[in-house]
Prior knowledge:
Elements: H1 2-26, H2 31-52, H3 55-70, H4 76-102, H5 107-132, H6 135-141, H7 148-176, H8 182-190
Helix pairs in contact: 1-2, 1-7, 2-5, 3-5, 4-5, 5-7
Amino acid sequence: MLSALAVIFYWATATACVVAARKAIATHRPRRMSAAWMTLAALFVALGLARAFEVEAAVTQWLRLAARTDGAYETRSAWQAPLAVVVAIIASLTALGLLSQRRRMRGRAERLMWWASMAGAGMVWLSMLRIVSFHAIDRLLYAKPIHLNWIIDLGLTGIVLASAVLTRIVLMQSSRAGGHSSITRSRQARDGR
């Protein structure tokens, strides 16, 4: 039941991202904005399909079977720690890259897109952590009664959904008020509007 709700939530988020991308195109925003929203839409469609068809669990089981077949499962603690460090470094570099983009964001719509991109990156990393299934991380993610996994998943998805909805609203208000991008303003000045 929870998986079905997650799929619906993912696909609702993907739909909101498509709507935000279309609004960005309609209001002549920079191409990177519509591309970012479409990338997030594709991510949440993929997450929905992965959840619906239990892809994460299948990949995790396949990795465990491969490790057992190679004899690496019993000695996994020896290679999981270095792998965890590599994952942490890559996650940190991704976060730093996105943080460096933050300075270039102008206006509410671009800041909302940035927040959604950060949350989307977080969803990718959460999915990778669930697939790799480090024992220590699994204890944190799946501890009862509160599954931190659910809280992080719902929170990040909610950030993307809210950012997409708010982006559409901001862009609608901006276009009604005549607050187009500098490109649109220069085109309007050139065309004598």
